[in-house]
Protein: Cell wall-associated NlpC family hydrolase
Amino acid sequence: MNSGLQYLGIRYRFGGTNADTGFDCSGLVRRVFMDALGLNLPRTAREMSNMGERIDPAELKPGDLVFFKTMRHTFSHVGIYMGDNQFLHSPSAGGKVRVEDMTDSYWRTRFNGARRLVGEESGAQVTQPVR
Structure:
């Protein structure tokens, strides 16, 4: 998912879905997966959390989705795992697309789970709901 790095520095915009006007977290994730794999993901982080296979944090691989509870409900924020505890995301109002460390206390205490949308061997997309 290194293709997502092209969006570093793009400003956050609530409901944003493109680089010209800005991205919210799920808008960024949708764009990266569409660009890289042609995969059309649901619009919200909550809806994305119902896709793919649940992944234990110890099993994270680049391209997995990582979810956080940043508001008053679970799965309110999503990013793309990059490896080495780093994830790409569009943070919040006033912020810009960036890579952050999941072990920082803010993210560590809000981590909500992870999902794998792409099968390892075939690279085929996984579209069934979480089990």
User: Anything to note?
Assistant: Residues 2-116 form a domain with the endopeptidase fold (from Nostoc punctiforme) fold (CATH 3.90.1720.10). The chain has one domain: 2-116.
